[in-house]
Amino acid sequence: LRDINMNSDIFSSLFDVIEERKKSSPEKSYVAKLMHKGTEKINSKITEEAGEVCEAALEEDKGHLVYEICDLLFHTLVLASYKEIKLDDIRAELERRFGTSGLVEKAGRTENESK
Q1: Which end of the chain is more exposed for a tag (fewer CB within 10 A), N or C?
Q2: What's the CA gap between 89 and 39, in Å, rounded?
Q3: pLDDT tens digits, residue range 41-98?
Q4: Torsion angle in degrees (nearest 10) through CA of 47, 55, 97, 109
Q5: What is the model's pTM?
């Protein structure tokens, strides 16, 4: 994952690499291997990484927490790519929510969105 486009932010560069790697052989790419195994395997990694974030949050080691957060973000972006969700879709949703109180945003959700 060292091919960073300096004209782009790190999230765009990372997502571009994930998109490219999903076309690779599962024997040669971790991303392709996860995607080849499907949603359940990717979900399992996200669950594992979320637990590690929570454990690291209880420590006094900021560097470890940052490391675990990055693992969680990476695996979440892998899932997004697998499900054909683009980074622009995620940006648009965050922009839609930006400036809105979390309580107001949650109150405006439909029943399915609240789960």
Answers
A1: C
A2: 19
A3: 999 999 999 999 999 999 999 999 999 999 999 999 999 999 999 999 999 999 988 8
A4: 60
A5: 0.82
Query: CA 66 → CA 7, 55, 60, 71, 83, distances in Å?
Result: 24, 12, 12, 9, 26
Decide if 10 contacts 20 (C-beta within 8 A). no
Going by C-alpha positions, the residue among 73, 66, 65, 69 that lies closest to residue 15 is: 73
Task: Find the helix or strand (DSSP H, E) in which 59 lies.
Answer: none
Tokens of 98: 């930006």
Q: How many CB atoms lie within 10 A of CB 79?
A: 17
**In this structure, what token pair is assigned to residue 62?**
């900021």
